[in-house]
Each structure stands twice: as structure tokens, then as C-alpha cells.
Amino acid sequence: MRKTLFALLALVLVAACQHADADKQPAPTAEPYDSAALHLAVMPVAECLPLYYAAERGMFQAAGIKVQLHTYTSQLECDTAYLRRSLDGGLADPLRMQALGKRSAAWMKVAEVKSPQCMVVNSALRLRSLDKLKGRTLAATRQSVEQAALLDLLHQGRLKEDDIYRPQINNPVLRTTMVMNGQVEGGVLAWPYVSVARAQGHKVLGTAGSQVPARCFVLVPGAKKADALRKAWQGVDRIRRQAIDSLHAGGAGAASHVLQTVYGVPQQVADTLRFP
User: Fold this and answer.
1) Residue 213 has what DSSP assignment?
2) What is the maximal distance between C-alpha atoms in the chain?
3) 20 to 30 A Cα–Cα from 209, which one of 30, 64, 229, 262?
4) Of 246, 248, 275, which is closest to residue 259 (Cα–Cα)?
5) Model's pTM, two decimal places?
6) How confident is the model at residue 231 (pLDDT cuts 50, 70, 90)?
């Protein structure tokens, strides 16, 4: 009964937070739709930063590559776009693909991308170790890399899934805000949001192990056939890798503008961040 009541309260809280933060969410591309371009779903997460960076710096345009990025606030929204065949592909989660079963069978994995997942707790709790999380409210996304990370982190603390309360917060920006505001006691976060939380004094209790699956980029055949999608992706991926090299060479603050405008990272933090 207690967990049922908590779940209902969590739903009310999430709805209120989503309404309050609606004006802060990234918007889809404002470019005129180009049917000849490769249309990719992206999110404000570390795995997509090289694509955002390359687009902002004009790297795709300079190489004569037509690509349009469409920003979504959760993997669920990206997957819905793929299922509707409204985009050519983009970021995906292998565990969500597994849960979708036959509905994702046609999605073609073209690259794996990984960002470490951490357990971050609000500083007011004064917790110092993962084993102290029993009975706490910890936000993550279900059927996802974040869920796998959460289970691994609980295992590190000798805890079970039933030892915690776990509201489903799909939006990583909202999840970070809720942890920092104390609306949940902790959550699974990744770069750059771990750095944002740490800069405000919140505590990182641990990092999930390497066995947690990596996210991936997928292509979704539809109006464009598989061969055409693969050929278009080759050019995009080449520039994506060049962007990664540029981000590493640029050091701290190389992606500051993108982190501020797309990810909502404060300038004083964005100027210090190095792409992992």
C-alpha cells in the first residue's frame, strides 16, 4: 500500500515539474524540412554532443552532407518517432529495443556510444555510500540503460530493487533538476548533468560498471531504403568522429555554447567541461 500511494504522489509531482519546466525543454529543429537530408533524433545527452557540435560549427555543411537533427527530451519520444517512420534514425537504447521486440526488429544498429552512469544524491541527505540508499526515492528510466545502471549501483551497495522507490523520470534534464531541488532523493545521471549537480554541492556515490550496455545509433528504413540510409550515415559518422577529435583537442569549454543553449548547463559550469 505504501508503494502504491508513493507511486500516485510521484505521478502528480512529475506532472507538475514537467509543466513548470516546459519552457526550458529543447525544441525540434527550426530548419525548413529537407527531404533529401538524413533526419536524426537526438537528445541532450553526452552521446549526441558531437552531432550538435558538428552542426553548430558547420562541419556537415562544409563537407556537403545534408543532415537535420531533431531534439527530443526522452528516449521514449525518439522511439515513438522511429515507430511512426517519421525520422530516418538516431539515438537508441538497446534495452528499450529489446522490450519493443518485433516492433524494433527493422532498426539497424550502426554505432555504439557509451557514457558512464552515476548515482547522484541531493546534498541535504549527507549520504556517503551506496549501501545507505535503502528506502530512498531514486529516479531512473525503466527498460533502459539507466535502469541497468541503477541495478548495478544497487548491487554495489548490496541492495535489491525492492529496497528503493523508483519513480520513472524519462527526461534527463528534468531528472537532474528534481535531484538538485530535492524532489527526489537521488537519481541516475550522466555527463554533463553529473558535473552540473556536483558544481552545486550534490554527491556522486558511485559509477555503474562497464557491463552496463552502451546506447547506440540506429537507422530506420522507411521512405529511404536501407542501402541509402547506410550510405548517408557513413558521411554523417565521419564528421561525427571528426567532431569528437575536435572536442578532445579543444579541451575545457570547447562545447560551452552547445551545452548552454541545448543542454541547459550554466555558463560557469559549461566553460569548465571537457568532453569525456
Assistant:
1) P
2) 59
3) 262
4) 275
5) 0.87
6) very high
